[in-house]
Amino acid sequence: MIKGEDTFKKIISHSKEYGFIFPSSEIYDGLSAVYDYGQNGALLKNNIKDYWWRSMVQFHENIVGLDSAIFMHPTVWKASGHVDAFNDPLIDNKDSKKRYRADVLIEDHLEKIKEKINKEVEKAAKRFGDSFDEAMFRQTNPRVVENQQKIEDITSRFVSALEENRLTDIKSLIEELGIVCPVSGSRNWTEVRQFNLMFSTQMGSLSEDASQIFLRPETAQGIFVNYLNVQKTGRMKLPFGIAQIGKAFRNEIVARQFIFRMREFEQMEMQFFVKPGQEKEWYDYWKQERLRWHLALGIPAEKYRFHDHDKLAHYANAAADIEFEFPFGFKELEGIHSRTDFDLNAHQQYSGKKLQYFDPETNESYVPYVVETSIGLDRTFLAVLSHAYKEEKLPDGSERVVLSIPPLLAPIKVAVLPLVKKDGMPEKAREIFDSLKYDYMCQYDEKDAIGRRYRRQDAIGTPYCVTIDHQTLEDNTVTIRERDSMQQDRIAIDHIARIVGQRIDIRPNKNQ
Ligand code: ATP
What we know:
The chain is of the alpha+beta class. The protein is built from 17 helices and 23 strands. The chain has helices spanning 5-17, 39-58, 74-79, 82-85, 102-128, 134-140, 142-163, 167-176, 220-225, 227-233, 279-295, 342-351, 377-388, 425-436, 450-460, 470-475, 496-503; strands at 21-23, 35-37, 63-66, 87-92, 99-101, 193-196, 200-203, 211-214, 240-249, 264-274, 304-308, 318-326, 329-340, 357-359, 364-366, 369-376, 389-393, 399-403, 414-418, 442-444, 464-468, 477-482, 488-492. The strands form seven sheets. A seven-stranded mixed sheet has the order 3-9-10-16-13-12-11. Helix 5 runs antiparallel to helix 7, helix 5 packs across helix 8 (167-176) and helix 7 packs antiparallel against helix 8 (167-176). It starts with a helix and ends in a 9-residue tail after the last helix. Adenosine-5'-triphosphate binds next to strand 10, strand 13, strand 16 and helix 13.
């Protein structure tokens, strides 16, 4: 992956040019932080969903799916804590009139100090060569120790101020650290205020009896309120999981970075219900299992890292993010949270209905604990796309843009291309297209020279191009061109389906 702002801009314009992502309501100049998925984007998105759904629901006997409504009873959000606590602290710069999340300003500042430490360590590693003892260096180098201490001091002040909702202390911290607005460069800040991220609307036709309801900010609550329905009708035994894919809505304060932070987005969440006391074990299991799911796509391991949380949400007793190295740096892609029995207990309390599990092994009833895996579909899309985007110089001096999308996820699996538009080649190509289309998403293209057609397929990440030429009409063979190596082989028509099938096999160790 190529890094940096420039690349990010190129990815955004490539996404638009090749029908992956369009700004919403573009003819009206768009709607901030809302996007539409085009013809190729919709396919890629569906393939990511399918990969997740199959990995969760189809490959685990004890995980089942759910599709709950976006609208829910308003008390759900009172019980879950979202009405009172789903806030971000916001701050405005009076000169640029730009709005920021106060916590993000501080976290970015901490990140800069961490970078200083890393540079110091890198320099020393070079200087000392093989004899370098990194742990010792980190403990003893005065500049590193001083910066590490700074990080710890700032973090503890920041975490306690956030936890206790002391907004003036957060503002003081921003002032003391000398944090400036990236746009105006000034320190002319407003007070810090809390801002609730839920969108609300009215249900009912008359304003007198209409009630305020919310657009769900996460899909998880639909799972919690249905947990007993599913457990009983599915005769599920602990531990078991419920998985769901669906839209979520958040009125994000700072909605930049394309589809990384949207106001309408999609989540793929799984709540895993376990016996109390076993949550730590399952939390560790799901952390590893989820990372494995990412790595199975063939994206290099160094693009991912865990970030264990210091500041835990009100419902969690352990939490970690899987971060991905986007073109703008490492950022959260997925969260794994040990949510305790917080949600089920709260819904018991607010609804007055028992949400206990009867354990046939111990003859006891109790409220299960929950381990959640929560991943953003759009962020996964962006991770895949930003890793896949490559500009290559070819041996003949020409250039190409290729999307090396993992074949399993590629929008189109096979392009079927008659070399020329005559001599029976289009007819033969259609025949091949028709025989493949029931198994694979294919595209037929007969326009322009073959080289240009290859480029078009490279640009949307099609793993295979099949070309029908004169020889095909004689001996039923075609050339098959592989996207990444651009290697071409002559194969029998009957072998196309098998070759493609092997490449997109989801079974462990078969992929790639
Ligand atoms: P962040 O800290 O980036 O705001 P979060 O910690 O609030 O994210 P969660 O509530 O844990 O996110 O949501 C789970 C996942 O949903 C995230 O890991 C992310 O992939 C996705 N997600 C959350 N908010 C957005 C958004 N505004 N746009 C796109 N995806 C999102």
